[in-house]
Amino acid sequence: MGECLVELLVSPVGTGDASRLRRLVVEHLESATGFVTEDEDFQHTLFCLYELHYRGLRGVDDRWEWHPGLLEVRALLEDRFEEELRTRVVVPGCERTDARGVADVLFAMTADDGGPSLSRFVAKKADDEQLRELLVQRSVYQLKEADPHTWAIPRLSGAPKAALVEIQADEYGDGRPERMHSALFAQSMRGMGLDDTYGAYVDLVPAPTLASLTMMSMFGLHRRLRGAIVGHLAAFEMTSSIPNKLYGNGFRRLGHGPETTRYFDEHVEADAVHEQIAGRDLAGRLAELEPDLLPDILFGAAACLAVDGWAGAHMLDRWQQDASSLRSVLADG
Q: Which of 22, 53, 88 is the last residue of a domain?
């Protein structure tokens, strides 16, 4: 599927025919037996289709973004992806629709369960090569940090919209480009001798990690899933502060200085504030204003925890086997 998509995207828009790609997608979905969150071809194809809506792909005409044939293919992949998530992800109930009640459920969902922790491994055991892999894995999201959630802004109103804008303004550096969280992450990559070019390592990143990003894009790009992207952001912020402290400690343990740890240290304080805004003022108030969205708010939060958990477990499992977590070994910096 991925090879066919690339061949199509480098052809002129007026001459390209997406029918072959559609046939390949249908055949793939009919014959696939595993989870799509672990399907390399599925996730890389969907990632590239979504990237047309972000910064585009080098050498690809931007008019492909809204090509009907590609939108049809994307819808086929999305339908299977959403179906799997709604089947596999366990979503708790919530009898209350007031802001405090919804926030309480979200905080309970995101409480540390004491299980295996990628961040604790990084803090205590990870070596320099594993730290570099961590940055590579996270780069597919962190170098565009906040963008998938920003799609929700025009789809909200009132207090939830104001809360989301408040969070996003901080993510984007409050008007200072050098303080954008994506810029801080790029600085961490440079500090570890990595290429901070947007998308430089996409081909090395395995399906479970890509799935965490394609899920965000799917939630963010569909108005009907605005509850899910809000719930996702709430869970994302609620599970960020403590892990980022541990990540920063892991880098410091191996002698890396502020130029590398600044990104993680910034999130310890920022996300401690963001989690309160996201839980009550964003997700909680949205449930008050649109009670019908509550199931999707909880689904989005649960999906965030589940998919990020699967991606983290994959990385941790590979490291504990003294193997690379990437699709191929990372070249020396």
A: 88
